[in-house]
Amino acid sequence: MAACPRLAVFKFASCDGCQLSLLSLEDELLTVADRLDIVYFLEATSRVEPGPYDIALVEGSITTPDDLARIEQVRRDAKYLVTIGACATAGGIQALRNWGDSAEFLRAVYATPSYIESLATSTPISAHVRVDFELRGCPIDKYQLLEVLQALLAGRRPRLPAHSVCLDCKRRGTVCVVVAQGVPCLGPVTHAGCGAICPSYDRGCYGCYGPCAQPNLASLTAQLGANGATPRETIVQLRSSFNGYAAEIRAESDRLELPPPGGAPHG
After folding, report:
1. Which architecture does CATH list for 6-154?
2. pLDDT per residue over 79-129, tens digit each?
3. How far separated are the first and last CA of the chain, in Å rounded?
């Protein structure tokens, strides 16, 4: 009988929540385990085997020189490398430091910062190595993860939603919180996956699943401005989440910080 494909799960700078999503599959995980040989998954087992691996699931961002060396080795060892969660796909909440002085943060937090080896930025995996597929969310949806694994085993591309949260609001009959209440909401530019939970409780979307395909950030920020938000408040709204450093969101928030031609910086 042919050997099962070998699965490895790696953690970098993160909270472990996306790895726990794999464990929370419970009954479905038993089926997956019958079709995959889980050879490296420190969250679940002490079994540690070297590569090569057929599938590598990677959680977390790159924040230290050791992280950088390790992800390059994972890439060499893996046939398919799949990043899971906001930290791995967009840098995570720790990427907020990218807009500040990393050295100053170290001095403020650690009594002896000279002992701390840290990169100046916290960046997604794709900034350093080739990624075969990204699964977004904070945390990821466990059934989307199951679909990715099943698709890779079947040799097909995963079938996951690419639309925005707004469409999910329409499908479940949720009244738009922007139109009805003027609540700031990132739903129009956020990738579906959560089922539009926050708007169903009269709260604006926080962008937990990152930017959707071709998000119109300029239109969204113009709408936020029309509802009374200053450019600075809009930048905070965009950045202060797990996906604030995602390329599309970062570009728009940086654009808002640029001074208009011949004028002073936005307030």
Report:
1. 3-Layer(aba) Sandwich (3.40)
2. 999 999 999 999 999 999 999 898 998 999 999 998 999 999 999 999 999
3. 67
